[in-house]
Structure prediction request, 299 residues.
Amino acid sequence: MSETVFTARNLTKRYGQLRALNYVSMEVRRGEIYGFVGENGAGKTTLIRVLAGLAAPSDGQITLFGREGNLAKERRRIGGMVESPAVYPNFSARENLEICRLQRGIKDKQSIQRALETVGLTDTGKKKAKNFSLGMKQRLGLAMALLGDPEFLILDEPVNGLDPAGIMEFRELLRRLNAERGITILISSHLLAELFQLATCYGFIHKGEILEQITLAELNAKFKKQLYIRVDDAQKAAAVLAGENVECLPANILRITGGPPSNAGLVRALVNGGVAVEEVVLRGEALEDYYMSLIGGRR
Ligand SMILES: Nc1ncnc2c1ncn2[C@@H]1O[C@H](COP(=O)(O)OP(=O)(O)O)[C@@H](O)[C@H]1O
Ligand SMILES: [Mg+2]
Prediction:
């Protein structure tokens, strides 16, 4: 069994009558990129605040790096970007990191340079943070989280407001941190699509409850047989793909449920057969459907 970085057992957080977290159980294993998905108000920030020690649970336990109880020492092994990063607008990136380093009592001064290099903010010189683009501000926030070389990085909706290019860049950065330094990452989002092709495991939270925790491999297995292709001539396409389990839907859309060897091979067969492929619906969208079906009955 692989090592667990974080576990929650029956974690409950009450705000008066409201249960922001209701008997939440989940676990994040070392090396994972855990996508924590839920609508606005689902309880993501609350869980993260409890994890980070910013809020006390009403009930239940959490374990960090295999320990329970007083987790002050364990929390020093965590880097977090919770809510919008506290950036001083009139200071440069380096100055902001220096302030952050002093506040957190991190001795290693070199970690500032390392963090700047990691997020690609070494050449911003004297430029004040208030003049940064949103993407640069997010990267500065990430640099702050990386001070002290954490083993576990917690990011609460870090790509909120970023444009698609910014999201892709941020995603690449996280993937590198995970692959090259083995940093375990918990990243929350209210948009499942933002975590698609990044997370290796998903936890779906809804109204303070975990609906499901599932690995990427398990999810892919569920969706291997769900591929939607829009073509110019569905009947012709179905004939080309005879042998596969093909269904013709309205608007020249095919649903393939037999599990073809590869999507690329399938498209090639269609094109070679004289069929124009207009659109292939990625599994990410199927994932979205799945997620909607999960929360659908619980609105
Ligand atoms: N400090 C608080 N006091 C009262 N209610 C809160 C507080 N923080 C969060 N809540 C409520 O808890 C629920 C979960 O909020 P939150 O964890 O911020 O959700 P998310 O981050 O998934 O959008 C919401 O209904 C929110 O209004
Ligand atoms: Mg939140």
Remarks:
- The chain has a mean pLDDT of 90.
- The chain has two domains: 4-220, 224-296.
